[in-house]
Amino acid sequence: MELLVTATARDGAGVARAEDGRVIFVEGALAGETVTVEVIEIDKRWSRARVVDVLDPSPERVPVPCVHRLAGCGGCDLLHVAAGFQLGMKAGIVVEQLRRAGVDAPSPILRPLEDDHGRTTVRAAVLDGRAGYRIGGSHDVIVPETCGAVDPLVEQILLEGRFGDADEVGEVTIRVGSRTGERMVMTDGSCHDVEVPDDVLVVSLDDLASGRRAWIHEEAGGRRWRVSARSFFQNRPAGVDALVEVVGAMVDELDAPGEAGTLGPLIDAYSGIGIFAGTVGRDRGRAVYAIERSRDSIADARVNLDGGEVKIVQAPVEHWKALPASVVVADPAREGLGKPGVKALMRAEPRLFVLVSCDPGSFARDAGLLCAAGMRLERLTVVDMFPDTTHVETVGAFGRT
Hints:
Blueprint: E1 2-4, E2 7-8, E3 14-17, E4 23-27, E5 34-42, E6 46-56, H1 67-70, H2 83-100, E7 109-111, E8 121-127, E9 130-134, E10 141-142, H3 152-160, E11 162-163, H4 166-169, E12 171-176, E13 183-187, E14 194-195, E15 200-204, H5 205-209, E16 215-220, E17 223-228, H6 237-254, E18 266-269, H7 277-281, E19 288-292, H8 295-304, E20 310-314, E21 327-330, H9 338-346, E22 352-357, H10 360-372, E23 375-383, E24 393-400
Parallel strand pairs: 4-6, 7-23, 13-15, 18-19, 18-21, 19-20, 21-22
Antiparallel strand pairs: 1-5, 2-3, 3-4, 5-6, 8-9, 8-12, 9-10, 11-14, 12-13, 16-17, 22-24, 23-24
């Protein structure tokens, strides 16, 4: 059918309406375009379609430069959008989600990345011993001959590595320290037939489950970090630089010293390996509580935060009995804080709550919950953490009403 696309959904798909009024989400379509589509999924209230032909293209549409994306690779799903337009498009998605949640939003600040060399962590499938990417909506695998989306240290392993029998290995995770040169590969199966450059540490998930420890180091946010094989770390050090800068500026601007002239405590919730506790918190001379449930991340945090005035607590944020703090910085997983997370952290009675989110839908929902708890969204920044993809990284600063 032929459709006029009028808006952008939270997952980056175009939004259109069929003649019968049904909402259709069109993958790969931009607002303002007229497209011919093929319907690929039908629900009771909506359908999903993909573009067959662009009849009236947006001025922001560009030719896709990657042959693997043209062949169906499921990554880099915004390569058809001009690079200079992508971040503004993502900011528009965030503002629309906030509007739907009933949250008044300030004009978002757009924060591009600097000194970025691509993703430093990649999970790949294995086909005939070689690493590759899944085709969108399929288990089929494309083995790339080149990949400009990843750091060159990753690309070498991705293209030249050999990972044994697919039935034994299944998938591999490649992780590198772009600024340290350290590299690691994690396999789902045996490491026996894995062939990678000599400097690459190879470890299996079974090895890790039996107690083996493996890590690399990365430099970001002005510090050196230990990152274990199963610990979470942002997908590129340039992204960490940007988040530390954005969150730090919000805290410096909106959290004034108390009556005694000192800065109040800071809670780093879902603290991972300690990024915000070790920069925004410790570098400013305040007491810090780092709350994290992952054992691997806690082990890294104890190394990364050694010597600082940081209290590390291994516990789910939702179950922690919060202590009074003037600032909460929360960087939860994609599903967000939810009611339990907001309730637990608001018990600290913070003057400032900084929320970091990689999903605009959950960010808007959590923003609504924070506003209902007496906060107001005062600063909003969208960080280009995932260039050329529909993933959106948002940072919001909430102050007391």
